[in-house]
Design brief:
Layout lengths: L1 E5 L4 H12 L3 E6 L2 H15 L7 E4 L8 H11 L6 E4 L7 H6 L1 H28 L3 E6 L12 H21 L4 E8 L19 H14 L3 E4 L2 H11 L2 H6 L3
Parallel strand pairs: 1-2, 1-4, 2-3, 4-5, 5-6, 6-7
Helix pairs in contact: 1-2, 1-7, 5-6
Length: about 250
Amino acid sequence: MKVVFLGATKGIGRALGRRLVERGNDLCLLGRDAEDLERSARDLEILAHRDPGAFRTVACDLSRPAGFGPAFDAARVALGGDFDTVVVTAAVFATQVELEADPALTERMLTANFTGTILFCEEARRRLLARGGGTLCVFSSVAGERGRKPVVLYGAAKAGLTAYLEGLDHKFHAEGLRVVTVKPGFVKTGMTAGLRPPPFAGEPDAVAAAVLGAIVRGTPVVYAPPIWRLIMLVIRWLPRAVMRKLGF
């Protein structure tokens, strides 16, 4: 595969990038932090026994949609032609308490996780369909499954993103677009540092392995760790009166 990867520098994204190159795939790394991108690219080159510069990097910020087109153009050149896979793991995370206390942070989170991500996916969708199809793998979250006290704002953005991705799959699947929506539960990464992990918390590499399998198979929805599929099935069916009393 030739992969345009937005967000491969930390946590699950970094683990997934490593698994992709171990399979011999070519990657172009997109992100807003040039130093993080370069470190990740060098790490992947060492892992894959590739020459320096084998994995190119391109600046791209989810809060700046005007840069999406140029970023894809640069990635196409870096990959030596049309790419067939786009992966999006980048996102902004903050706790509900932090978001309620900081309207500017809330705006940045909503812009990046909803508007920016959807506009990026639209650019990816147009380009993949223009070549006859491909795979678009995007990280949403179980936080978007239902409104819950600890993730009111973050969950709202992810709920909108999940609905968009499902609609995209329905509309363009017959034209060759394979949409893979990843719904991570609690995973031990820098994003969740400082939060108390539940007994079923996942590890980045195990989640990355599940996501890679979904990309290869074209699985429309993947919960990671898998136990979250059952957990959210229960949560979705709980009465509203019960949800008001729960802290989960």
